[in-house]
């Protein structure tokens, strides 16, 4: 608990002890009780309720009268006056204020718990960046750092600006950004994003962005603006409270005055009116609904899912169709070796296994900058082993050749094999096929393709289990798209699409479904903006996609898509539960209070009890 919460708790305890002592322990003589009792009971009343009274006075002064502070002030002061002039029982008046403060404290602690997840994100804000000047490290404001500056990040420090490692290797903690608990290993040449914590070693990073364009700054901006985007449910509660509160105040006044004209029993009807006021306090709705959305956004943030506002959280809960981009969303978006197929022994130039074929391909491609060459070198971990390479030549559109350890190696397309007279075999897998020949005799081929992400299949199946239609859009060829759709069990897919075609296709589904679009590239930005909910892959995704999206998945994991929908649906379920429960209990207790069947103790339950139960229900959205 913070300092303010501890002070409130101390006031509640002191007031509670005094109330027990004055009510059950001290027995005043009859001749003194009438004068001293009100004075004694005013002490715990003011201890526990002075801030409520001050807020009520401030509201009256600012012409914003009808709020929960005004209701509590009027009800408890009225109950206190009834005790002085009629009943002599001060317990109810003080207990109402006491339990109200207990409920407020409970709500404050609950908000604090959900705020921790947001605060964890706020901790990614870097306070400084370190640059080397005259052989010494100097702290500077990260806002002053220009693109291309070399910054130094020592162990335990936050990476202040996005960049590329030019010296050093380490492991970094990305938990605050992605929700991933395991550290990530990094080395020279790797890209790093701001907000991560360097766990070991010293890193020198060449900045690729300015401070305001870096990942940490953008995330903080998203989080800080999330609460300003209210959902329809929150706006309804705000409008409801604006009409409801003055309506019950005037109803209570009518309940106190009108029956008294006919019965003459002012005390009886005033007591009912005060009970009516306490019951009517809309705290449960006003507090629990925003808290539920706040907890939902905080809980999603803890898992690396950034939702830009409660309106998008509510929209996400209604999704019935998810349209998925392929490259970078369902696939890794980078070339990788997908398969290695050496020839059978009766056809190959010499005994060649998968490892040897990769060895030859990686070395013959050592001096090429083609994406396929880079993928081959990455796939063979011992590329730098002792190997003699001579007479390297590159033939654009065909392939490369070199003499490796005395053997003439050719690697490239089927046209290249035809050119050298090697009898090549067709590969039935889709992707870029690199054929290999040893001394102009065919040795096999290697398939390089964009590999499906580990969790893509599971993500698609989860969406299907949630009765959500899945559609794949891609600019790739029909053959490539069909193979990916087959592997992922996606029945609806469209290939060969330009960015404008993707928008047109998405609009077809928008007519019949509440649609979310998931993408990562700059060409996906128009569709992300057009969909009911745009979801961007944030770790490798483009800045344009992240700006256009309503939801950002910080670690590019497709499994976070159904997880985000589940969080939103759970959140909206809790919102509806709290609305129905709060209004239902209020209406029943208001009828009981007006008819005289409810006393102040039931009023306390209808106000504080319902609020506590609603808040307890709301914080379930965190988990």
Derived structural class: alpha+beta
Assigned CATH class of the domain at 333-451: Alpha Beta
CATH topology of the domain at 333-451: Calcium-transporting ATPase, cytoplasmic domain N
What's the pLDDT, averaged over the residues? 81
**3D shape:** elongated
Write out the CATH superfamily name of the domain at 333-451: Calcium-transporting ATPase, cytoplasmic domain N
What share of the residues does DSSP label as strand, in percent? 15-25%
Q: Provide the gyration radius in Å.
A: 34 Å
User: Which architecture of the domain at 333-451 would the CATH scheme give at its second level?
Assistant: 3-Layer(aba) Sandwich
Order of strands across the widest beta sheet?
A: 10-22-21-20-11-18-19
Distance between termini?
A: 20 Å
Main β-sheet, in a few words? 7 strands, mixed
Give the % helix: 40-55%
Q: Care to describe what's here?
A:
The protein is built from 21 helices and 22 strands. α3 runs antiparallel to α4, α8 packs parallel to α21 (600-618) and α12 crosses α13 (371-379). The chain has 623 residues and is α+β, with helices and mostly antiparallel strands. The strands form 5 sheets. Strands 10-22-21-20-11-18-19 form a 7-stranded mixed sheet, with helices on both faces. The protein has a 6-stranded antiparallel sheet with strand order 12-17-16-15-14-13, with helices on both faces. Mean pLDDT is 81; it is low at 346-350. β13 (389-395) and β14 form a beta hairpin. Among the domains are: 129-224, Calcium-transporting ATPase, cytoplasmic transduction domain A (Distorted Sandwich), CATH 2.70.150; 333-451, Calcium-transporting ATPase, cytoplasmic domain N, CATH 3.40.1110. The protein is elongated, with a radius of gyration of 34 Å.
């Amino acid at each position: 608990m913070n300092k303010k919460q501890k002070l409130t708790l101390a006031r509640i305890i002191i007031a509670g002890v005094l109330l027990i002592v004055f009510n059950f322990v001290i027995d005043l003589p009859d001749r003194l009780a009438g004068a001293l009792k009100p004075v004694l009971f005013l002490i715990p009343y003011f201890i526990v309720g002075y801030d409520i009274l001050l807020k009520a006075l401030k509201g009256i002064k600012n012409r914003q009268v009808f709020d929960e502070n005004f209701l509590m002030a009027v009800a408890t002061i009225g109950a206190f006056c009834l005790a002085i002039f009629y009943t002599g029982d001060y317990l109810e008046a003080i207990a109402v204020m006491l339990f109200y403060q207990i409920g407020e404290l409970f709500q404050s602690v609950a908000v604090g718990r959900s705020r921790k997840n947001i605060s964890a994100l706020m901790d990614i804000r870097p306070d400084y960046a370190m640059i080397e000047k005259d052989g010494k490290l100097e702290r500077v404001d990260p806002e002053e750092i220009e693109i291309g500056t070399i910054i130094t990040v020592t162990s335990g420090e936050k990476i202040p600006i996005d960049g590329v490692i030019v010296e050093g290797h380490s492991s970094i903690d990305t938990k605050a950004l992605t929700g991933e608990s395991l550290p990530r290993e990094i080395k020279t040449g790797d890209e790093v994003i701001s907000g991560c914590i360097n766990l070991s070693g010293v890193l020198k990073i060449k900045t690729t962005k300015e401070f305001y364009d870096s990942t940490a700054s953008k995330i903080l901006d998203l989080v800080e603006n999330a609460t300003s985007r209210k959902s329809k449910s929150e706006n309804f509660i705000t409008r409801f409270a604006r009409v409801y509160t003055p309506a019950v105040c005037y109803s209570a006044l009518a309940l106190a005055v009108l029956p008294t004209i006919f019965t003459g029993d002012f005390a009886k009807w005033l007591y009912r009116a005060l009970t009516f006021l306490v019951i009517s306090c809309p705290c449960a709705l006003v507090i629990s609904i925003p808290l539920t959305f706040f907890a939902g956004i905080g809980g999603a943030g803890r898992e690396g899912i950034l939702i830009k506002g409660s309106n998008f959280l509510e929209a996400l809960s209604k999704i019935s169709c998810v349209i998925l981009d392929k490259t970078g969303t369902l696939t890794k978006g980078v070339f990788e070796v997908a398969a290695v197929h050496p020839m059978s022994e009766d056809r190959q130039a010499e005994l060649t296994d998968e490892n040897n074929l990769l060895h030859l391909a990686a070395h013959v491609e050592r001096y090429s900058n083609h994406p396929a060459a880079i993928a081959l070198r990455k796939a063979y971990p011992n590329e730098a082993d002792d190997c003699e390479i001579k007479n390297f030549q590159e033939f654009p559109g065909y392939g490369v050749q070199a003499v490796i350890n005395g053997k003439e190696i050719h690697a490239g397309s089927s046209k290249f094999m035809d050119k050298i007279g090697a009898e090549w075999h067709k590969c039935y897998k889709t992707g870029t096929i690199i054929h290999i020949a040893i001394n102009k005799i065919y040795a096999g081929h290697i398939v390089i393709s964009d590999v499906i992400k580990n969790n893509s299949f599971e993500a698609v199946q989860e969406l299907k289990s949630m009765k959500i239609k899945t559609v794949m859009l891609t600019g790739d060829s029909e053959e490539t798209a069909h193979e990916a759709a087959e592997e992922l069990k996606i029945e609806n897919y469209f290939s060969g699409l330009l960015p404008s075609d993707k928008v047109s296709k998405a609009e077809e589904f928008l007519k019949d479904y509440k649609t979310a679009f998931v993408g990562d590239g700059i060409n996906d930005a128009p569709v992300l903006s057009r969909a009911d909910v745009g979801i961007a892959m944030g770790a490798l995704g483009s800045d344009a996609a992240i700006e256009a999206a309503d939801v950002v998945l910080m670690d590019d994991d497709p499994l976070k898509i159904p997880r985000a929908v589940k969080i939103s649906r759970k959140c909206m379920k809790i919102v509806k539960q709290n609305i129905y429960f709060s209004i239902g209990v209020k209406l029943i207790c208001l009828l009981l209070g007006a008819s005289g069947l409810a006393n102040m103790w039931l009023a306390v339950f209808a106000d504080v009890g319902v609020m506590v139960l609603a808040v307890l229900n709301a914080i379930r959205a965190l988990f």
